[in-house]
Design a protein that fits this description.
Helices cover 12% and strands 47% of the residues. By secondary structure, the chain is mainly beta. A hairpin with a 2-residue loop joins strand 12 and strand 13.
């Protein structure tokens, strides 16, 4: 959830101001609203700096030993780049998800045309999905031909992409201090 903070900054403005008012040193104020996206607490003087200094993430990479290294994001999660039918998608690695699932917005862009209607139980209750088969899925350098993907039909989940256990089962995952290491299971 984003937190909004309003700060007032003095501003000397020439628009619609008489020369006498300028000479008298009139100060006008402008309200600037900041939205805190990372959940950290910033003091008023740190907000402007934080708004112009993003945290750089290291791009996942294939290491010489064959492991694909994904660094932990600032929210503590692992996000893996991939594709569905050639469309680029960033997946949240979700060991609690039984199946790989995407929102309807991603599904449409990825060329998923239809799916078998189903109802699944999640940690948040029951959910309507459309199960699509025959997709080409890539996770980093790993390919899954004829992959099944569930399309979450909740309108609030249009752009969500979860990498579930159905595809993680065929991968070796190893968490280290450096991040999450992934390779094809042997």
């Amino acid at each position: 959830m984003a937190l909004r903070m309003r700060l007032r900054f003095p501003l000397r403005s020439m628009v619609g101001v008489t020369a006498a008012a300028i000479a008298a040193g009139s100060v006008f104020s402008q309200t600037t609203t900041y939205v805190i996206l990372d959940g950290n607490a910033y003091s008023d003087d740190q907000l402007k700096w934080a708004a112009s200094h993003p945290v750089s993430m290291e791009t996942p990479r294939l290491e010489k030993d064959g492991w694909y290294l994904v660094r932990r994001a600032s929210d503590g999660q692992y996000y893996v780049p991939g594709t569905i039918n050639g469309f680029p998608v960033t997946f949240l690695v979700d060991s609690g998800a039984t199946n790989t699932a995407v929102g309807a917005g991603i599904a449409k862009n990825a060329g998923i045309r239809a799916g078998v209607s189903a109802q699944v139980q999640t940690a948040n209750g029951y959910l309507e999905v459309a199960r699509s088969a025959g997709n080409t899925l890539t996770i980093g350098p790993f390919s899954f031909p004829a992959a099944a993907i569930e399309v979450n039909l909740n309108p609030n989940a249009l752009n969500i992409a979860l990498l579930g256990m159905d595809h993680m089962r065929s991968l070796d995952l190893f968490q280290t201090k450096d991040g999450l290491k992934i390779r094809k299971a042997k």
